Amino acid sequence: MDVRTSFAAQAYAQSRPATAPQPGPAGSAAEGGFAGYAKDFAATLKAGEDTAKSAMMGGADPHALVQALAATELAVETAVTLRDKVVEAYQEILRMPV
């Protein structure tokens, strides 16, 4: 066995734990990733709807309604932009020669 390959294997074994994913504060990697963003998105939409309903009934001030609508608009624009980027990447993959 070549000494260089032995050193390479040892270096890989030492660097592997440093690159292993660390559990987030929520407990799993999925909670901190896309699932967490999806929950935040749904919560933002729900808060906007609740504020709009409250404003229609006369229970919320117009300033709170404008803030809720702005937050909802920003969340939807972000989701649409993310969707467009994913579709664009998928189309690029389909265009790749095999």
From TrEMBL:
DNA-binding among keywords: no
GO molecular-function terms, A-Z: cytoskeletal motor activity; structural molecule activity
A GO biological process held by the record: bacterial-type flagellum-dependent cell motility
Span list, region Disordered: 12-31
GO cellular component: bacterial-type flagellum
Keywords attached to this entry: Bacterial flagellum, Cell projection, Cilium, Flagellum
Coiled-coil intervals: none
Keyword Transcription regulation: no
InterPro entries per record: FliE
UniProt protein name: Flagellar hook-basal body complex protein FliE
Lineage, opening ranks: Bacteria, Pseudomonadati, Pseudomonadota, Alphaproteobacteria, Rhodobacterales
